Amino acid sequence: MSDSSIEFPKESTVLLIPGPAGQIECLTAPPEADAVDKNRVALICHPHPLYGGTMRNKVTHMLEKAFRDMGAHTVRFNFRGVGESDGVFDDGVGEADDLLAVYEWAKQAMPHCKFWLAGFSFGSYVALRAVHAINPEQFVTVAPPVERYDYTELSPPDCPWLVIQGDEDDVVSPRAVYEYVEQQNPKPQLVTMKAGHFFHRRLLDLKGAVKNGILRQVNTE
After folding, report:
1. pTM score > 0.85 for this model?
2. What residues have CB less than 8 Å from 203, skipping those under 6 apart?
3. Which residue from 46, 52, 51, 33 is spatially nearest to 99, judged by alpha carbons?
4. For residue 36, what pLDDT is reported?
5. pLDDT digit string (tens) for 100-110?
6. What domains can you pick out in the chain, each with its CATH number?
7. Percent above pLDDT 70 for the chain
8. Per-residue b/e over 33-60, b at no fewer than 16 CB within 10 Å?
9. CA 53 to CA 197: how far, in whole Å?
């Protein structure tokens, strides 16, 4: 059941919503004006908080831009203990609860929309922990840290899944990501790029890879 008092902002807005550890700081944005289908909400998870990751990270921002181009309302948010979000770092467990709280808020604000889910680095691990509860229409993970966390306990999503990995990444092992993708059933769509972990000088190419990857999956459904 939706709460009619909750509305998705019509302009880019920073707001605080209730979460399991206190307030969660969110940054919402509407779809681009010329987008055709605006019946989606994309939730975007940022990289590791203990290494400076926030919702304003450049990669998460570029994910937002790609999704807005494709007609999605977007929500970036700070995990617990980051920015104005309450709580302390919880190694992905509590952060997944934060994500689910953001999802519940967005679902009430936009009850008739489908959801997309994305994460960068640590954020992709958090997103995968919550993917079955959210059951998104599309799932995007950029530089998933498969060697740093126990991915064996996490089952793949039931929706189309796009994995983007830079082959010059010195934070996440490209080889480990490629091997992980090969082991999945169904297998994600893998896009490799000549880029490091933060996609310096390749952010616009990353944006294009996200849009093309999702369009490719939509056209093959």
Report:
1. yes
2. 58, 59, 62
3. 46
4. 82
5. 999 999 999 99
6. 13-220 (3.40.50.1820)
7. 97
8. eeeeebebbbbbbbbbbeeebbbebebb
9. 13
